[in-house]
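Priority: medium. Attachment 1 of 2:
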């Protein structure tokens, strides 16, 4: 880290609960173009809540995510994909959620498939400005 960029090279966090890995690599400059990548592999959702110091009661499931960040601070570009398996948020259950997102030109586009089984699912697509 210096006065013009935060650079991370090969940061890997392995879950103490056995499965799950977080990998972060790239540069986030104050000026110029960013080039950063985040990857979560089978990471417990409860561990993410704990990382962000959120209440973990009733939270469960496994998260997989791949995200990239590029562009400038004034015009960021990001895209990625995510999935949640056996998600739990208190009484709410999300057996599976798969999705993608894309952000550029100040527009967020995304889509997801949610359901209890692949044969019974809900597909959502949305563009936000």
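Attachment 2 of 2:
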């Amino acid at each position: 880290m210096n006065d013009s960029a935060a650079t991370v090279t090969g940061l890997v966090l392995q879950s103490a609960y056995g499965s799950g890995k977080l990998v972060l690599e790239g540069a986030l400059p104050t000026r110029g173009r960013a080039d950063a990548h985040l990857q979560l592999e089978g990471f417990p959702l409860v561990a993410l809540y704990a990382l962000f110091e959120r209440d973990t009661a009733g939270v469960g499931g496994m998260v997989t995510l791949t995200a990239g960040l590029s562009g400038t601070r004034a015009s960021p570009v990001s895209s990625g994909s995510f999935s949640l398996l056996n998600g739990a948020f208190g009484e709410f259950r999300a057996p599976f959620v798969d999705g993608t997102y894309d952000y550029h030109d100040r527009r967020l586009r995304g889509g997801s498939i949610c359901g209890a089984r692949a044969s019974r699912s809900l597909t959502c697509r949305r563009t936000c400005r």
